[in-house]
């Protein structure tokens, strides 16, 4: 029996990321929240420096951190600084919050693959940030696009072909 693992990613508005990641094979649970900022107990109205992020609980017997990164780099634009779609500001930055040296190395390797793929005109600007406390967002943000199927999202699968 497997022990579940967690991954922490930010790539723009957390609603769209959650909506796409929740359907991935091996993903057991998702929570939206805030990470990498300046204050404790951040809220949607006050989260200076925090990225809108996603905590992904996954079964490593069914998917890997590398496969999650691969999907991450195909479902958002990792080449725009502090922006996804119409959303602008550091809250919407592309970031990987690595928990150990192995995750950091996998993230660096994936960024090199993405940059070398020629799929994007510009280079990846995704930041690699050491894991910090993940603060769960308010309940009305959890599963937002399931509750509001016509809600805003700028996330979609941009490339079918894997970087792996």
TrEMBL record:
Domain of life: Bacteria
Domain Peptide methionine sulphoxide reductase MsrA: from-to ranges: 6-154
Active-site residues, as the UniProt record annotates them: 13
GO MF terms held by the record: peptide-methionine (S)-S-oxide reductase activity
Family annotation (Gene3D superfamilies): Peptide methionine sulphoxide reductase MsrA
EC number: 1.8.4.11
Reaction it catalyzes: [thioredoxin]-disulfide + L-methionine + H2O = L-methionine (S)-S-oxide + [thioredoxin]-dithiol; L-methionyl-[protein] + [thioredoxin]-disulfide + H2O = L-methionyl-(S)-S-oxide-[protein] + [thioredoxin]-dithiol
Keywords recorded for this protein, A-Z: Oxidoreductase
InterPro entries: Met_Sox_Rdtase_MsrA_dom, Met_Sox_Rdtase_MsrA_sf
Record Pfam families: PMSR
Family under the similarity heading: Belongs to the MsrA Met sulfoxide reductase family.
HAMAP family from the UniProt entry: MsrA
Chain's role: Has an important function as a repair enzyme for proteins that have been inactivated by oxidation. Catalyzes the reversible oxidation-reduction of methionine sulfoxide in proteins to methionine.
Matches recorded under PANTHER family: PEPTIDE METHIONINE SULFOXIDE REDUCTASE, PEPTIDE METHIONINE SULFOXIDE REDUCTASE MSRA 2
Annotated protein name in UniProt: Peptide methionine sulfoxide reductase MsrA
Species of provenance: Algibacter mikhailovii
Gene behind this protein: msrA2
